[in-house]
Design a protein that fits this description.
By secondary structure, the protein is of the alpha+beta class. It contains ten helices and 34 strands. The strands form ten sheets. Strands 12, 14, 16, 17 and 18 form a five-stranded antiparallel beta sheet that branches. Strands 23, 25, 26, 27 and 28 form a five-stranded antiparallel beta sheet that branches. Helix 7 (525-544) packs antiparallel against helix 9 and helix 9 (567-583) packs antiparallel against helix 10. It starts with a helix and ends with a helix.
């Protein structure tokens, strides 16, 4: 670009006139009234050469693409002039009136600012506008679809130059065996923006997303069928199939803004070989992938097999071999390896009857990488011996299925002798069995005979044969009848599974929202929006009796309308779902995470009141 300017200025010998004109720095939009989730364009233009451009914060909007920079130069009657434009594609998220603040730029050492622009955001799609004053004017090099609203389905021509492939490292696996799924973008066209259209549900799999620490897209060159492409991995996940059979991996759908060249009548563009361009939106969708899942073989399956699939090792330990009664003992089991380690069931080690056992504490040191899920999980059991003696903690067995050899592997652990010395308060201790059901009193099988004088009373004078005695005696059958009536009512009230799911839908949603609240406190925005999204979707699935795989915005709207839910509440619900979906891929501005949380909670409460 500098070379173009230099040659032109030397040819015209008129450099002084380039900056003689009055410099203006202006902001314009192609729409001053938009609907929620609708795209529009804002352009900042300067009729000169500037640098150190600083955009506003765009509070209340999501930035889809930008800045898209265009420059132009013209010569009229020997006077040369240059101009620059910075444009952004924005999406309105929440209704209201917002102001796009001033941008700044430095021209000839002087800092210039634009005036703020007010944008009115309404629910849904805003009416068409014919506002020439608000229309963003592109330079001769920035032609294209205004606002990027029109989305084209990818035809055969663009499909050869821009496509997404869903790639799995294995297409035939055993139940529970891990699979690496990669959604890979191939392109040899100019991309200036992108946004997610529909993410795969991955129904039938337990999945773990692979997180990129530096958040930067890494491009590489790849030859495919003799054609060179720029390739980037957009999304990677580790999948664990949850049932046998053929499971289809849903396609990923995205919208890309492609910059396509267009013919120009400008002689300077023709002279320098640059020309104009159009920015066109294309919807690209990957092809579904089918994974064949084989059931685990029954031959050779060990007793007590817990569903571990992969390659593992196990170790166990205790923190002391000798202690006093009523002192704590820590018993640890550590499983290390690669596979579905996050899906392991807790162990149930056997302890002597005199040992009181508490629920284990679980600690994970697990990494999710492109080669699979690996690491360790440690279970720590707190046990308390209640009586002195010499005891043995027996070994336990751990079994897993190794898909590389298609065989089961059983690993034994060590047993431990434990010496328990007499404690101070041992005689006053009651011991519980390992299942908390068996109870026995230690060292008190024979009680001492009481030699104190007892109180002797006649019939009717004490509790026995009194009015209270017979009242309590009659209370037993009444209590039984009450329990029988309650049992019948409970059975009738819970016989309809659909009604039970609908009735408990708010409790399930509350668990997701509680998890979202925890992620909000931890400043984990992505996990926060995922939990809010899952909470609302799970609630609607149970409340409306719609399978999660069949749940979409159109189905939700029709079902809620059929139940006489207000249109405004339905639109607000859909806007919140769109916001949560977009927030997992781009930062959200204009609304705080606390406001999103309160909004989701209030919407669920409103639906509960109406249905």
């Amino acid at each position: 670009m500098k070379r173009k300017y230099s040659i032109l200025l030397l040819l015209l010998l008129n450099t002084s006139l380039l900056f003689a004109a009055d410099i203006r720095f202006t902001a314009s939009v192609n729409k001053t009234e938009v609907g929620t989730t609708e795209q529009f364009e804002v352009t900042f233009s300067v009729n000169g050469n500037g640098d150190h451009f600083t955009p506003p914060s765009f509070n209340g909007f999501l930035v889809v693409s930008g800045p898209n920079v265009s420059t132009s130069m013209s010569v009229i009657n020997g006077n040369a002039s240059a101009s620059m434009a910075y444009s952004y594609e924005l999406v309105a998220v929440k209704e209201g009136t917002y102001a796009i603040g001033p941008a700044s730029i430095v021209v000839n050492g002087k800092q210039l600012h634009t005036n703020p622009i007010k944008i009115k955001v309404k629910k849904g799609q805003a009416p068409p506008q014919n506002n020439n004053a608000a229309t963003a004017q592109r330079g001769s090099r920035g032609g294209g679809a205004a606002g990027g609203v029109t989305v084209h389905e990818a035809g055969s021509n663009i499909a050869k130059s821009l496509f997404i492939k869903a790639v799995v490292d294995k297409s035939s696996v055993y139940l529970g065996e891990q699979i690496t799924l990669t959604y890979r973008l191939y392109t040899n066209v100019a991309l200036v923006g992108s946004q997610a259209d529909k993410l795969p549900d991955l129904t039938g799999f337990y999945n773990e997303d692979i997180k990129n620490p530096d958040q930067a897209v890494k491009w590489r060159t790849e030859i495919l069928k003799g054609q060179s492409y720029h390739v980037a991995d957009m999304k990677q996940s580790i999948l664990f199939p949850e049932h046998a059979g053929n499971i289809t991996i849903d396609p990923m759908s995205m919208i890309f803004v492609v910059r396509e060249s267009a013919a120009s009548s400008d002689p300077f563009d023709q002279f320098f070989g640059s020309g104009s361009y159009n920015d066109v939106n294309y919807k690209i969708k990957s092809v579904p992938v089918i994974v064949h899942v084989k059931p685990l073989p029954q031959a050779g399956k060990p007793d007590g097999f817990g569903g571990a699939v992969g390659r593992f090792s196990i170790s166990n330990s205790i923190d002391k071999n000798e202690l006093k009664s009523n002192e704590p003992l820590n018993y640890k089991i550590k499983v290390t390896g690669t596979g579905n380690i996050k899906l392991l069931r807790p162990f149930n080690p056997e302890f002597p009857t005199d040992f009181e056992k508490y629920d284990p504490k679980t600690e994970d040191d697990i990494a999710v990488k492109d080669n699979g899920v690996s690491g360790s999980r440690t279970y720590t059991y707190l046990v308390i011996p209640r009586h002195e003696g010499n005891f043995n903690i027996p070994p336990l067995k751990f079994s897993y299925f190794d898909p590389s050899t298609a065989k089961y592997v059983s690993l034994p652990t060590k047993g431990f002798p434990v010496k328990v010395n007499k404690g101070i308060s041992e005689n006053n201790v009651t011991a519980y069995g390992s299942d908390k059901q068996d109870v026995k009193t230690l060292n008190k099988d024979i009680r001492y005979i009481k030699n104190a004088n007892g109180n002797i009373s006649k019939n009717g004078e004490g509790f026995y044969d009194s009015g209270l005695y017979y009242s309590l005696l009659a209370f037993g059958p009444l209590l039984f009848l009450g329990a029988l009536v309650y049992g019948k009512w409970y059975e009738k009230n819970n016989s309809d599974i659909v009604k039970v799911k609908s009735r408990k839908a708010s409790k399930v949603a509350a668990k997701h929202l509680a998890s979202a609240k925890a992620q909000l406190s931890a400043n984990n925005s992505k996990a926060f929006y995922e939990n809010v999204f899952k909470g609302i979707y799970g609630y609607l699935s149970d409340k409306l009796n719609i399978a999660a795989a069949d749940l979409n915005k159109e189905k939700i709207a029709s079902e809620l309308k059929a139940r006489s839910v207000d249109e405004g509440l339905i639109n607000e619900l859909q806007d919140t779902l769109d916001l949560c979906d977009m927030a997992r891929y781009a930062p959200v501005s204009g609304i705080s995470e606390q406001q999103v949380f309160d909004k989701a909670k209030n919407m669920i409460n409103d639906i509960e009141d109406k249905i």
